[in-house]
Design brief:
Structural class: alpha/beta
Number of strands: 8
CATH superfamily of the largest domain: 2-enoyl-CoA Hydratase, Chain A, domain 1
Radius of gyration: 19 Å
Low-confidence stretches: none
Shape: globular
CATH architecture of the largest domain: Alpha-Beta Complex
Strand content: 5-15%
Amino acid sequence: MQDDGLARVTLRRGHAGNAIDLATARGLLDAARACERAAVRAVLLTGEGKAFCVGGDLREFSRLTGEALEKHLVAVTDALHDALRTFASIDAPMVAAVQGAVAGAGIGLAAAADVTLAADDVTFTAAYTGIGYSPDAGVSWQLPRLVGPKRAVELLLTNRRVPAAEAATIGLVNRVVPSGELAAEAERTAEALRRGPTCAFGATRRLVASGQTTDLARHLDDEAGALAAAAASEEGREGVAAFLDKRAPDFTRIPSRP
């Protein structure tokens, strides 16, 4: 993370398609916890090389069998899932820039972002059932909410490739950009969020997430409470003062919650 509050989290196994082995899963958890501890205002998630993330590291998994394999996969998913839970719990919004192949747990990482930008050469493949596995990384939770349950089941059972344009149409990603412009556009998007009202972003993210399972009456109460707290906060006071003064608000001077 740089001093400006923008945390850059990069998968650095480009030689292996950024496949998630135990070390990578634990590295993601370390990064998530660092973001939780620090005054992070936004997170930018990327993967080095030609592929964003091809899923789990099957070469690592294939070295084990039976109980040893089961214990290993529990360790990998425990770390990966704790990382996803931690990223979801902080106020700072996440931007993901995805390119090339995105499969398995890579879909879970891409879907976990608040804003997912895809290069025009990207393809998504669930892949799990193709090797006799079931989903992890929140894929079976995220996909139905993003693309609808019927389409999610189809993608998970058939493992067909979803190109960038279709991914945007069905709601799997927010926008498609030319591959040569992906990094710059992701930086611009993350930077814009970094300058925003971090605590209000966190409240908004939580409201959207809880609204998937909360009844309307309860959700309206939650909205009212969150709005009152936001209005009374330093961010709320700065936002209203800036509006009345006809100037741009400066939310970056207000410390975000660690």
